[in-house]
Amino acid sequence: MDTFIFVLEIIGTVAFASSGAMTAIEKKMDIFGVNVLGATTAVGGGMMRDIILGVTPPAAFSQPVYILFSILTSTLLFAIVYTNPEILQSRIKSRYYDKIMLWCDTAGLGIFTVVGIQTASRIVSQDNAFFFIFIGVLTGVGGGVLRDIMAGETPYILVREIYASAAIAGGITCVVCGSSMGEAAGTVLGLTVTVVIRSLAAYFHWNLLRIR
């Protein structure tokens, strides 16, 4: 299970780093800014989680493999767009770029939500479902919130289609199924629920109630 979680973390790191780097590229940041935003998006939620759980230093610093992967991913994306600037043209961007960013963000959300829950359940001996779900959602959305604030945008979770709610649903699924069907099943099902709800919300433009 440890290997499975590590693989998920690496995939989530690459996905969220891609999301952060692509946001920075859209904002015309230089290569340093692209790497900073990519790394912040990738490890920001995990750092918040570790601080609340009392893990010092946070895993992002004690295990630099996560920051390394985020920097490599961000640099690669910067190089691709730098050498192919036509990618940012409106027609190509709307057809490919935005969809890739959506899928990266969705994958990162689902992965880090369940990883956050599993991390909390291993560190905290007390069985506290609410706390585990809270930590999972924080891990899933934290990096994206930091990304949006640093990019000068209203955080995605507050204005766009159902986002944090998908993580909450996935977190509940992970905890409930994990206690009855086992840790692995809970992780897979929680991840699946988060990704499916978020994907459907983006496709059909589902939103929570708001004042128009």
TrEMBL record:
It is a multi-pass membrane protein. Keywords: Cell membrane, Membrane, Transmembrane, Transmembrane helix. The keyword Cytoplasm does not apply. It comes from Candidatus Blautia merdigallinarum. Belongs to the UPF0126 family. The chain crosses the membrane at residues 6-25, 32-53, 65-84, 96-117, 129-150, 162-182, 188-206. It comes from the Bacteria. The keyword Lyase does not apply. Its main location: membrane. Residues 7-80, 102-177 form the Glycine transporter domain. This is TRIC cation channel family protein. It is found in: Cell membrane. GO terms for cellular component: plasma membrane. Pfam families: Gly_transporter (PF03458).
